[in-house]
Amino acid sequence: MFKKYLIIASKQDAAGVNITTHLSQFRKNPVLSGISKDNSSFDFYLVEGDILHEENLDLEKINKYDFVIFASKHSSGSREKTLSVHSPGNWRIARGGGKSEKISPSSALFQKIMFENLNKQAEDSGLTENNNEHQDKYKVTLECTHHGPLINKPCLFIEIGSTETEWKDRAAAFVLAKTIKKTIDEFQENPYREVGIGLGGPHYCPNFNKIQRDSNVAISHIIPGYMIPITEDMINEAWKKTIEEVDFVVLDWKGLGKSAQRQELIDILDKNHIQWKKTSDISK
Hints:
Blueprint: E1 4-10, H1 14-23, H2 30-33, E2 41-47, H3 59-62, E3 67-75, E4 82-86, H4 108-124, E5 139-142, E6 155-162, H5 164-167, H6 170-186, E7 194-199, H7 206-214, E8 217-223, H8 232-240, E9 248-251, H9 259-271, E10 276-278
Parallel strand pairs: 1-2, 1-3, 3-6, 4-5, 7-8, 7-9, 9-10
Antiparallel strand pairs: 4-6
């Protein structure tokens, strides 16, 4: 179980600074509060450059912690208001930090609890409404695994999107800060959850969102449909970089291209004796 957490943000990132500023009020003084080595705790690490490139990070410092949370902004051309969670890594060519065809370790169980808490905190705070249908409300979503940095510790990104207005939104940052603190305080490994890797679908993962939020399955890395053809090496990398034992892969069936492309993927899974389920097969 994770005990020592490191929260990393860039001093150049308005959202990262906003989130860590709010989170600082939840950090207990270990001397005054009597925190022991058996309690979970977190430290901050604010860096001068961006946090997508591991060259900007002190990896020796990072390796002293059990789990790393990157607090960051999210940018998109659609300018949609989002609160998002995802694992870092690159399935093909690295264009935003990290290394090509390499991904960082992910905890499916921690990411699931983080996503569940983010949904609840956002809803309780009024940031989301009516299943995110209102344009002035935020959409809570997973993103597929993408961009750097590449580190050797289990980690995830939690982000505010998608413009400077949202990055500086104090209410949104407070919700993410509460989500981080609550997840760190309450996280426990659950042997009864099933662990899966997501394959297919769009970047914002609507079908995997439902599974992560409403089912017993915990999703770690997600390889989106726009990475087709999904290769055996990609699947092996996702499997290897999930720190829990993976039970099966979850297929967003309609988001996996044409019939021939889906069959190629099934052949890879069957060849490697990997169990698979469609998103529609999972009880939610």
